[in-house]
Amino acid sequence: MDNENAKLQLLLDRAEISDVQLRYATGLDSRDWPLFRSCFADEIETDFTSVFGGEPRKVSADRWTEAARRSLSGLQATQHMITNHVITFQGDDEATCVAYVQARHHLPNDTGESDQTMFGYYTNRFVRTADGWKIRACKLTVTWNTGNWHVFDLARRRLDELEGRAKSGGR
What we know:
The protein has 171 residues and is α+β, with helices and mostly antiparallel strands. It has helices at 2-30, 33-37, 49-52, 61-72, 150-162, and strands spanning 40-47, 57-60, 77-90, 94-106, 115-129, 132-147. A 6-stranded mixed beta sheet has the order 2-1-6-5-4-3. The chain is elongated.
């Protein structure tokens, strides 16, 4: 029976890790920041250097959530599809999930295409916590892009305006 319980636990762990990946995407696209935040351990390692350059860094999950909010809330819509989850376990309390991602970003504008799309994969490291599996390291590897990168600058300006931080002309 021990072997059967171990197999059952493995299936439950795999399902929960996949659910975290899906909550991550749903939180981003629905702008449900508490849902997005629930995916992470309190401190995480982030590596988005394939998108933004720079270096990987450690940040609080609260800060990471706010950065995501500031990056995406000014867009009219996003759609993050995270698929093909390949989950490997390191002992009982750590795992890695490599999953394809297609991230679509939409903002109608007068400067070019309304869309920008990233294609690639996440390599996320998970840790089992008292509250379930959480992402402790999030790495995005972009393999190609299409569309208008300028939508991100426009989205930041749009969010600033919506939140009352717009710069007045001449100041």
